Amino acid sequence: MNRFSKSLLWLVFVGLVGLSIYLWISHEQPQISQLLARAPVSEAPPRPPAPSAVTFVPPPEPLADPSLPAPADRDAALANLGRAALGAVLFDERFEATGIVRRIVVSVDGLPGPKLAQKDRLLRAVPGNFAVEGGDTDLRRSPLNDARYRPLVDAFAQLNVAALLLHYRQWYPLFQQIYAEIADPRALFNDRLIAVIDQLLAVEIPASPPRLVHPGVYYRYADPALEAQGVGAKMLLRLGPAHAARVQHKLQEFRAGLTGAP
Predict the structure, then answer these.
(1) I need a labelling partner for 20 at 20 to 30 A (CA). Which of 62, 97, 122, 234 fits?
(2) Backbone φ and ψ of 231, nearest 5°
């Protein structure tokens, strides 16, 4: 396994964390490669407690020689490695193959916001409709969505966090460079990543599906407080309690590695 294949772990991880709301509401059977840990994952681990406050830590020191490809070669190298790791069909159908690192940074930064522009998404929209039940007067999320989300949640839950943290260090100079372009140049992408993870961990997932309304093309939450949440929070709400707990559990694990917390 070469260093670029290992680097893909980080990209897949961030992509699956929330780079695109569309992928989380899709139906696809990703081919889990040998880059993903094979340990079994429980169906619904306990939801980790949300941190009481954001803990900002210094960004990781990049490795002395990350040996990253030249700017003109990065997308091609990452796209080819993506095809090798996830399968050519899955990668070519679901992933954008240009501006990959920038899409990651912009998407992470945008998860707390109200929407993420199509041009900034790493993952393309996947065919399939969000399933609802209850009739026009009592629309709610249908359990039928669980089967659509399960392959993606399984892939995310099996990611090797130790390897992701290692390659996060290797690619960090590029993440920081792009973040300085889209945000305050004095700000650190590492701080933003931890803050976004904390916001996702703080999302309370109702035990029963909240009521929906359908005023136009898209479903919306009848509760204004739920509807006002960012795209990342709504992603977790759409996953449902069991899947959301697994995602938050993995996010907690990754955050602990970033901050050195137990």
Answers:
(1) 62
(2) -65, -30
Please, what sign has the CA dihedral across residues 259, 68, 73, 4? negative
Distance of CA 41 to the CA centre of its chain: 18
- The pLDDT assigned to 226 comes to 95
Query: What's this model's pTM, rounded to 2 decimal places?
Result: 0.72
Mean pLDDT in consecutive groups of 10 residues from the start of the chain, 262 residues: 44 42 37 35 48 58 66 82 63 82 91 91 76 91 89 79 80 91 93 97 94 91 95 93 95 93 65
Beta-ladder partners of 132: 141
The tokens describing 96, both together, are: 């954008």
239, containing H or E segment: helix 231-239
- Which among 26, 123, 33, 150 has a CA at the least distance from the CA of 86? 33
The helices-and-strands tally (H runs, E runs) of the chain is: 11, 4
- Name the residue among 162, 163, 160, 167 with its Cα closest to residue 36: 160
Angle, helices 189-201 vs 231-239, to 10°: value is 40
- Residue pointed to by tokens 């479903």: 219
In 3D space, the residue among 140, 129, 111 whose CA is nearest the CA of residue 236 turns out to be: 111
